């Protein structure tokens, strides 16, 4: 009977902590979206919540430029890591856009846009996590990535 009571209490404590983490995360996500909508920005910033400091990397991409959602998410992730790496370690990023146009026999043309991103960096940012993404009023997809900077210790 004691063993059953022990497991019930453990389950309750774990469940309460999980709910607290989830509600904190939702609150932080909503705060970041409100902050962005009040004053849109792109790049890297340090943001504090009550217990932690986070580095956020924010960028906006045109969803129509990418063939699939997976490609859009991968490009967003690479660009967010490049922003964070540049902030922490310094880096040199070059970006080329190639526009290839072919004309058909009937007078119409097809256009293909290829974007090449090259980064030379002196470091690596690991554990950059996507907090959220949402559509802006002008149709661009906004991505917010975070990584903890440090945990603020309270006495």
Describe the overall structure.
With 155 residues, the chain is an alpha+beta fold. The chain is built from two helices and six strands; from the N terminus they run H-E-E-H-E-E-E-E. The protein has helices spanning 2-38, 69-89; strands at 43-48, 52-61, 91-103, 109-121, 129-135, 141-151. It has a four-stranded antiparallel β-sheet with strand order 1-2-6-5. It has a two-stranded antiparallel sheet with strand order 3-4. A hairpin with a 3-residue loop joins strand 1 (43-48) and strand 2 (52-61). The longest helix is centred in the first third of the chain and has 37 residues, at 2-38. It starts with a helix and ends with a strand. Residues 12-19 and 151-155 have low confidence and may be disordered.
Give the CA-CA distance, first to last residue: 38 Å
Q: What class would the helix/strand composition place it in?
A: alpha+beta
Strand element count: 6
Unreliable stretches, pLDDT < 50, 5 or more residues?
Answer: 12-19, 151-155
Major pleated sheet: 4 strands, antiparallel
C-alpha-based Rg, rounded: 21 Å
Summarize the structure.
The chain is an alpha+beta fold and 155 residues long.
SSE inventory with pairings:
Elements: H1 2-38, E1 43-48, E2 52-61, H2 69-89, E3 91-103, E4 109-121, E5 129-135, E6 141-151
Antiparallel strand pairs: 1-2, 2-6, 3-4, 5-6
